Structures are given as C-alpha cells and as structure tokens.
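To: structure desk
From: M.T.
Subject: fold request, one chain
Message: Could you run this one when you get a chance? Sequence is below, nothing fancy, just the single chain.
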Amino acid sequence: MIMDEEHNNSAMEVHSSQAVLKHFMRVSFVIYLVALLYFTLGKSPAVMVNGSGYHANTKPFQTIKMYQNMFKSSPELKHTAFLNLFGNLVLLLPMAVYLPYFIKVLRNFISDFLVVLTIIVAIELIEFYSHRGTFDIDDIILNAIGAIAGYVIWKICHVIHLKRKHENTPVDC
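Reply: Done. Structure tokens follow.
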C-alpha cells in the first residue's frame, strides 16, 4: 500500500512538472515571437545606401569580415559589431528549440533546420522588400548557425527528458 502511494506521488510530481514546462514553453514562445517581430520588422525603415537604393549583400562573409575589422580597428564600434554578430547568432536559436518541442514531425534535424531556414530567408526578404532592413546573406549564415545550436540544445534536453521519463523521475528539461 505504501509503495502504491509513493508511486502515485512520483507520477503526480512528473505530471505537475510537465504541465509547468508546457505552460512555460507556451508563454515564453509568445514572448519570443513578439521580440523576434520587434527586432526584425519593428525597426524604422532602412536607410538608402549612397542614394542608389536599398542594400543587399549576396557575397558570403562580406559583412562578417567588416564586423571583424571593426573589432580590430575601431574600439568605438566594437559594441555595434558585437551586437550585430551575436544578435544574428542567437536570433533564431530559440525557434529551433520551440519548433520540435511543439511540432513532433520537426524532431529530426533536417526537418527542423529546413523550416527554420525558410523562416530566416522569409524574414530577410520581408526586411528588404518592406524597407525595414537589408537582405544580407551573412545574416542568413549566422542565423543558421544559431539554429543549429538551438536544435542541439533541444536534442540534448529531449534525450534527458526521455531518460528521466523512462526512469519515472521528475522532468526539468
């Protein structure tokens, strides 16, 4: 009788922690989406480059190299360079965590990555055509690297979750 009671308490703790996790993921996803829209499309219209139209960088690593040079040559621009490089790395990282959490068919790397890559390209095109930013292949590269890191984080947490679920212990990740 005591064993059944302990098992029920353990099962209730697992269910409770899973409910808390689901609620946290839903709320944090909404907050993330609002922040993503703000940081990508909530900006003021992009400034025309040399009066000749809106800028599009289609040459890989051109912008990344520019920011690397800023780090080396311009102490006052280090902050701007860091924000742009780091910001693009982490911008879509959460999306690669949320998608497989909410959508089971995206729980393999290729599916998750292709969907996130589509979102990345869509954001770049919307920024360009709405004049809310520039199309930059380096943004796509950095966002994609961040998305890969996000998937790795999700996968690690998912494996831990499955292991703990199998062991019937409370789930934290």
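Reply (cont.): Residues 14 and 169 are 6 Å apart (CA to CA). Let me know if you need anything else for the meeting.
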